[in-house]
Amino acid sequence: MKLLRLFSVGAFAMLAAQPAAAYAPAAIPELAERAQERLRVCMGAIEAGGAERRLACDESLTGELNRAVRADLLASRGWISEAENALDAALRDFDAALKAVPNHLAALRGRAHTLSELGRHTEAAALIERAMALGGRATLLADRALLRERAGNIAGARADLDDAIALDPSNSWARGTRGRFRQDEGEHEAALADLDAALSLEPEVTSYHYRRGLSLVALARPREAIAAFDAALRLEPTVVQVWLERGRAFEALGHDGPALASYERALRLDGRHETSLSRRAFLLQRLDRVDDAIAAYDRLLAVQPTAAFGLNNRAGLLAGLGKREEALRDLDRAIALVPGDGNALRNRAQLLLQLGRNDKALRDLDRAGPGHDAGAWHGMRGDALLALGRPQPALEAYRVALALKPQDRATLFGFGLAQEIRGDRGAAAAAYGALLAVDPDHEGALERREELLPTLGRSIEVWPARLAGLWRSAGDSYERERAALQGAYRALWPQPQAVPAPLPVPPNPLAALDAALALDAFDVPRLIRRAQYSIGQPQREAQARADLAVALLLEPENPAALVQRARLNFRDGAFIAAQADADAALRGEPRSIEALFQRARALTARGQLSAALKAYDDLVAVAPANAAALLNRALLLQHAREYERALADLDAAVAANRADPDGWVARAALRTALGQTDAAIADFDRALSLDARLGQAWYGRALAHQRRGDAAEAAADFAKAKALDAQAEERYRAFGVTP
After folding, report:
1. pLDDT confidence of 125, banded at 50, 70, 90?
2. Are 293 and 281 in contact, with CB atoms under 8 Å apart?
3. Which of 23-32, 185-194, 329-338, 526-535 shows the lowest per-residue confidence on average (mean pLDDT)?
4. Which residue, among 633, 606, 607, has the nearest Cα to 618 in the 3D structure?
5. Could you give the C-alpha distances from 12 to 4, 9, 19, 616, in angstroms and in order?
6. DSSP track, 534-574
């Protein structure tokens, strides 16, 4: 103890003067590697989400003493906060980084961006100018362009982007942003050039594909626009606006089905997206799907009760169904929302005329003005005035309407009535005659003219019209009788030998699916159907995989797609993945027969036979007559030595599908093993009557004959089995076990 006390104090002083790290314990390699990894995650060298990056920055900062590295970490964390709109936290980190390293370029840029977000544009611009003195001018010009845009200086922003691209043509952000500016200014060809250049540098930026689609639509190139929107959606399938614009492009192309599907997919992502609700309702209305369109407007108005156009359009649909009072309520609401809406006022006027509320109709027409169809407006005014007992102003309105639309039937008839009420029978008869020249079968005009002509002393003119009507009806009767006589006449003559019509060629489902998917590559039900048909066709399996990948990108929990992927995984020997897909499908559709079947197959292949047997029990409970499930369960029951249950399942499998030779062979094999040789031979005979090429059936029947002592028959069957299939014995053994 004394010797320890005599240890020199100077020695401690000397030790303290050395770098601490020289005497620190050696770092554990795993910890050092983790520290380096966390630092790289924070700095963005390893891709990670925002939350993981922030955590990595926090961990790295706790143990980092080097000022330059700390500045890098603080700047990186500041950019993460800026991206998350946590602007105060971002400023704190950028300030701390600049305190550590006063000219830290990333911190200067980040602080400028954050100040600009806060509206402090002058301070932001000063920081960018300070940063430019340090280098990286092309990047900083692009930064300044963004800051100038936020400050409203679009011309300055354009100039900065031009300069940035001149200095560094590989700056994809500058290219993409200039493309956006050009697009906003209507320079769509130039915008496409910039966006194409940006995509050649960074092909996985969703906004570049989306913007490119918008310019292609503006250039009336909707098919290319759809391809651009599809490219955007393959990167980010949950962007509502892209689905909306894709739907519009399909409408421009004249393909309403895919357009409707695009709007509906947008609404799956955001059920309250007003523009998608509107476009869907408009499209259903244009397709004359009246009930669906009304329901679509109901949905729109539930989200946006003040959408006057929705009320107006729903009113038109309701009126068409004869629901006039409901339609009137919608129009009243629409006009209350937008009192000067001429379209709604004219629509309400038309409805009020039908309801006999003529004074209110006239008031609405006068408030609305002519609009885009002045002829119809003047005609409706004439109708309202005439109904109110004012024939003279009605005539004036009709004259203006006829000057615009000389052959309008309703206006011509109203003009005749107005002349008749006014007492000018000759002018009325002339008006009805003009209408009959346009529409010879107009009952109202025929009736009024026949009544007027005798009072004018022109009874003889009634007869030509009547005769014309008689000739028309007689002509119709003559044509019918002539057709009947010709049919009878042809029947009397010997008929030439009929050439048999060629048998109809069954439609090729894959060709039809290919054609449909060439139009709309994101039609999920068709993608799944094409994959279903393609699995098992070697030249098609790559397409099946691609189709399922797209379907599950768009609908990750789609049970039908998951089931088809389970099939592919099973074929690949990936039994765990196959079971996982089947389980996921069953979460969506617990009674899916195909999903239950795939799950049971996967469990069997994994050797989990008890679980597989339970899975087949679940399947048979849902589909008691599923022959494949019964057959597979029977094989598992044989393995478990439950022979009576197995035989019952095979009886049920054969009853469910008498055309499947496998069921007969499986039952025959079990009967052979149980010593029921006569019944087994009968089953083998039935299997061979269905398919005489089955080597396993010949082999099994040979065994049955052998057990019965029929040596000659057994030898012949063995020879036949060997000739047909060298693996006949192996295939036969797969059907069961020997008790």
Report:
1. confident
2. yes
3. 23-32
4. 633
5. 13, 5, 13, 78
6. HTT-GGGHHHHHHHHHHHHHH-TT-HHHHHHHHHHHHHTT-
